[in-house]
Design a protein that fits this description.
about 450 residues; alpha/beta; Urease, subunit C, domain 1; TIM Barrel; 2 domains; four-stranded mixed β-sheet
Amino acid sequence: MDAERRARTLWAPQAWVQGRWQPAVRLVVDAAGLWSEVSVGVAAGDGDLRLEGPVLPGLVDAHSHAFQRAFAGLAERREGGHDDFWSWRDRMYGVALAITPEQLRAVAAQLYVELLRGGYTQVCEFHYLQHAPDGSRYADPLAMSWALADAAHEAGIGLTLLPVLYGRAGFAQPALRADQRRFAADADAVRALRDGVRAARRPLVDAGVAIHSLRAASPASIARLVDGLGGVGDGPIHVHVAEQMAEVDDCIAATGRRPVEWLLHHAALDARWQLVHATHATPAEIDAVAACGAGVVLCPTTEADLGDGLPDLPRWLAAGVPLAIGSDSQVGRDWPGELRLLEYGQRLVQRRRNIAAAPDDGEPSTAARLFERALAGGGAAAGRSRWGLEPGARADLLVIDGQGGARCDPGDAQALDVLVFAPGPGPLFSDVLVAGRWALREGRHPDAAAIAARAAKALAA
């Protein structure tokens, strides 16, 4: 089966290369699962596998909590007088305290198949579930990490594991709450987790680090973690920041600075850093983030679901900050839906259309500008130096399904616009390639039924 799922030379009538649709594209996969050749405007060879629709690079899901897939859709009732992010979080902890490594693997494998169907070929796991439900340490500290890695292997998706620094319940609470007991990890533990994942050298699995938030990690622990890391080429550093106004207010009260402002002054931000959400960043903060080369990860469906607010998308785009997207709490699991909501939120507030388009800069397509930014920003968020349909990048691609994804013929210049803003009722993508192997073919995953059955059992439990 592995040999049958492996691709070597492919030809597409139309593919997204160098930031635009290009005709008649030939793509060659090398023995390491990377693109060795991407040629535009060439005829198909006799031995080429001809793809039937427009071809896109896969995107990186730059922020995921896989275990929250077990909770998606189950917090949409309000029994009391008030419901917000913090009450949602308390309910989410119930799932976090219950799930076992075996259940996590089952739920994550189902999620990862769904992410493949949604056009993601790499996922960054912001991973803070480290210990047993009673808070005791597993014999193997990486037990929960291996559950995620096994799930990614089973699904056929790439994985960047981000073990999380998590040491306190809040700015004024030096210890964790009882319902956070599975999350405890200091700087030394986080680096050990990262290094353990890397040492295993599993195919398609890499690791960086994460800091849960400024409220959950002391300045001393953040400094100890970052000081013990390598330079810019040694993997990404992710952090939740400025997602909720209560967090911003608490940070000001505790430190005298807003969260993003604090990072800018104390954390020496550079291209390794990915600021997750940054919903309530000011224009001055955004410009300063741009100047230091850090990126931002936006999670539109989760930010909408949790009532976080809207980011200053026009400013992030204008400043040139690397921008990635994430599925976060898994209420949305396809990137066209994330990009659509990202733009629609701006339209509702500004009462205008095509906010993200930049015709004066030669980018009149809203979908194309957002996609291209998410493509580049996602690669950086996953710690990949190359990403997309270019030589040296991993051989990932998506074939748009002509019935569900774009409802237009190959060669249509607006296929991406239709995919994002007016998809049909069917599958978005007919075929998904990851590192030169087919994860989905004709809309089907080879192990979908078995994965779904195990997930259903875990979810019921």
